[in-house]
Amino acid sequence: MNKITQLFNIKYPIIQGGMVWHSGYKLAAAVSNSGGLGLIGAGSMYPDVLRNHIQKCKKVTDKPFGVNVPLLYPNVEEIMQIIVEEGVKIVFTSAGNPKTWTQWLKEKGITVVHVVSSSKFALKAQEAGVDAVVAEGFEAGGHNGREETTTLTLLPIVKKQLSIPLIAAGGIATGKGVHAAMVLGADGVQMGTRFAMTVESSAHQSFKDYCVQAQEGSTFLTLKELAPVRLLTNDFYYQVQEAYKNGATIEELKELLGKGRAKKGMLEGDLVEGELEIGQIVALIDKIQTVNDVFNEILEEFNQSIQKEFVF
User: Fold this and answer.
1) Does residue 75 share a domain with residue 46?
2) Strands (E), 19-85
3) Measured between alpha carbons, how far is 78 from 118 in angstroms, rounded to an integer?
4) Domain check: are 196 and 210 in the same one?
């Protein structure tokens, strides 16, 4: 047992990122059934869709699972109400002020974790009363911190200042990566990209296949003026870069991004015009596996890694 397995009542301190367009009930339940903590990603769901996924998840797993809620999204009040009504006991919040909802959720008996990209925001989350913090380095996929602090740098800085459990995220996809994060002070890890590329992920097969082909340098952090996001290179990404070259205003960037661009790319598989969010570590992943196979691989490599002794 460690702080994270105790906090969530899970077997392994491995948490699946609540990624938009990937994290439906099938992925969350598969991760929870494998001994980790699965998260349903509310960010890409209308409230009634979220309720449906929570209900389905409860039918296919009797293990703990949670919901990831980006606080800046619309319908957040309705989403929180559904979470309480459906008896969800774990909520991960991101993209907003943790003070807004933390105490309200905790009064309902819910464990609250907030995702941050800097030690400054980690301390604010701790002050807001969260039970744990996810410190996410800029290697991570999807929406990201503006600071561009890497996980290797961020973890020890946050650990030094934090008294609550710390979860590492960003660039972690292997057993060795889990071991490294823990050596740097993490009590657990959150993985997005590795679980995005599983059979159970709800992303389109074309998107998964495109990810398998990705190389080192295939992803870039962009659109900082709106909300920083790490994207795979494709026609849409190059349109964004062209807009920057032409001195695009924030309004012009918003217009280019438009609505439903991420859904088009990741859920519908439009590899040309879609927004393709994924982490840097995608370059290391060369196959689509089941969640169970991913866990077996990570645990085997982790156990091998901790048995090695390095002597200087």
Assistant:
1) yes
2) 38-41, 65-70
3) 29
4) no
